[in-house]
Records
---
Amino acid sequence: MGATDLAEGTLLDRLDRYGISRRRFLTYCSGLAATLALPPRYAKVIAQALETQQKPALIWLEFQDCAGNTESFLRARNPAVADIVLDLVSVDYHETIMAAAGHQAEASKEATIAAGGHLVVVEGSIPTKDGGVYCTIAGKTARQHLEEAAEGAAAVIAVGSCSSYGGIPAASPNPTGARSAESLVSGVPVINLPGCPANADNITATLAHFLTFGALPATDGEGRPLFAYGKRIHDNCERRAHFDAGQFVEEWGDDAHRKGWCLYRMGCKGPSTFHNCGSQRWNEGTNWPIGIGHGCVGCSEPGFWDTMTPFYDRLPRAAGFGVQTTADRIGVGVAVGTAALFGAHGVGKYVQRRRAAAGEAKATVAAAEADAGQELDSELEEN
Ligand code: SF4
Ligand code: SF4
């Protein structure tokens, strides 16, 4: 059976041809609902939406990047099922994986833009200094490509820290004038999925949310979806009990390191970083940086290369954070409510500000999700 045959028919037909049972597909949808922090009953809602929705076109642009997000995305969990779901979007342009090249590729992109209603994924930052000459493709600057692709798009999804916030190219002194996608696009909803790289599960879940509800998920004050960036690394960390107990690694390879104690004194930025790495993990959910004994470097925070470095020192200039002395003091082993400590040192305000912005966005999208959920629930009951 050829690739074309495998791609034809409804989603259920294609699942069948790939030997994927409906049960396995529903299990995958349950995982998507869990990733999106939706109640379990939404698995059926997502499944039904994915089975019936129209196939939107997607343009994936790569600018000042390392292709790390593409690599991450191509290694999505449950690849066989994810392939089918991702097949629900028509990836009309992606420099790394498309077969077309040169004028043929540009023509395909232009046709998609002309039709409108497409999704634009942006990977890498956009240079703006010296007329944007530091990244040109097919005779146009990255900025021109982004502005053209965003025209008439349904949404722009910035994947990775470079397209979300400028990333490493924008680190001081930012020689190319690198900027985020959001700062250069107007009139189109933009969502940021920062990380170095972005987690493939979060990219897939964002697409699934858009396909299910016809809108991007609710975001926090930094434009990140709450389902993935609503909590700090520190809130879901398996080493948290050791932080609270004042049990810290003091040197790489010491007894505390071997026992899996807290990495705060080795420079872990988990207390000021918002991301769901601890629950989603990486490499098919096998593990994550802190799980293997390396502190979080705060890669999903704006300007992390400037504000979170040096990576192996304790929170040197992290915005709104100053628990260094606090963590030192609780090193004597007294279990103390860290929320209260953070509040005393300014972190409370930092977290509260984010939560306030998040709360407003959450209320708006929760209403949309509830409407869509009720509608589909009724349909499910009727069937
Ligand atoms: S400081 Fe880092 S290692 Fe320690 S509990 Fe917080 S996130 Fe985990
Ligand atoms: S643990 Fe921290 S540095 Fe590692 S991927 Fe997650 S947010 Fe980035």
---
Amino acid sequence: MIYESVIGLEVHLQLKTATKLFCGCSTKFGAPPNSQTCPVCLGLPGVLPVLNERVLEWGVRVALAFDCGIARVMKFDRKQYFYPDLPKNFQISQFDMPLAQHGHLDITMEEETRRIGIRRIHLEEDAGKLLHEASPTESFVDFNRTGVPLLEIVSEPDLRSPDEAYQYLVGLKAVVQYLDVSTCNMEEGSLRCDTNISLRRPGASSLGSKVEIKNLNSFRAVKLALEHEMKRQALALDRGERIPQETRLWDAKGQRTESMRSKEGSADYRYFPEPDLVPFVLDEGFIRRIREALPELPASRSRRFQTSHQLSAYDAGVLTQHRSLAELFEGALRAGASPKLAANWIMGDLLAYLNATRLEPDAVKLRPEGLAHLLELIQDGTLSGPMAKEVFLQMLERGVDPVELVSERGLRQIVDPAALERIAEEVIQANAKSVEAYHNGKAAALTHLIGQAMKRSQGRADPRQMSALLKRKLDAARQETK
Ligand SMILES: [Zn+2]
């Protein structure tokens, strides 16, 4: 049977404030275990939490960027549960009065834009971390992460496919990076997500029972887990089975989900108002100042790129997905680059390099002026295509300016026809077998000869010119032997 999937996402975002949510401990990642703790975040008796104002400000900044309504009264609640990484046996969170509600994020799917609702955004403190690797028989607890500020962003179940879920996460991360409030580094746990999915017959208004999936450590894992879960639930429903409401874990190795526990309801957490933090009213002026200071966000920047730089919606979307890519592009334009050429190099060679090295865009040393200079050197014929690629790589890895590199290394495209002729002649003489193969109709032999010529010129010949020259010479030689 055909089913429609109903998908929601919960994103936990670690805010990159210097100190924790309710105490002055550092939040720096990677410190020795338990070196960043104090009586407050260890939950020792008699201590009182004090709210970090910066967290509140950044939480409001994120909420406004997603067009949420901000709560006027700030109230915190205790969420009780027992787990070794939670020293207080409760977590300070927000239950019935979240920081913000009713926002949205627009995602672009091929030609269609879909508006995905954001149900709520609330503040809470992170738990510690269990370490199992140090010993086969013991587990250790690191409380450095206890009390680090988290923002939980809960979507409405508006997503209809694993691809939409993926796009939502990409879009959400882009907005948060523009706001500069989180590193969004999934490997360090700064961005974590859980997803939930149920299936129903198309057009049905009621929802099927929801399965939550945890242990997702990349956006790709979210997509794969949802694809797997859609198939698993559809098969079960086809057999007339009931889908139990439960939490499942994604097993990345086995590429499948496994049942973890039946889903707990909010009653299991016995929420009650946090008695040590008195509810308070958020000042209108505080919210207004944050709203006025919001930066240009990816969606409006993409629209601006399309209208002022004549980029396609697709190109503008890719370039604005990451703040530093967008800034590189605009910086190159300010330094005189043409929008189309700059976009091509960023979306072509730079993105290929980032994919291959798995680096984030801000990790490369490429400077916008350098990109503009490279484009000039290509246009004025100083650099051939392959030389430009080689120079670009040096720019990415060492941050050098191409103009300096060209003069320092004596890189300059060979344009002198006599010099090119000489190289072609040498290659033909040194590769008799390939020449014969070409004359016997093996077109691939020409590719080999071009490769040899490029090598002999140390990449400084223009490959198109060299290929035409070799072909002309070989064909002329064939005429003579006939
Ligand atoms: Zn502390």
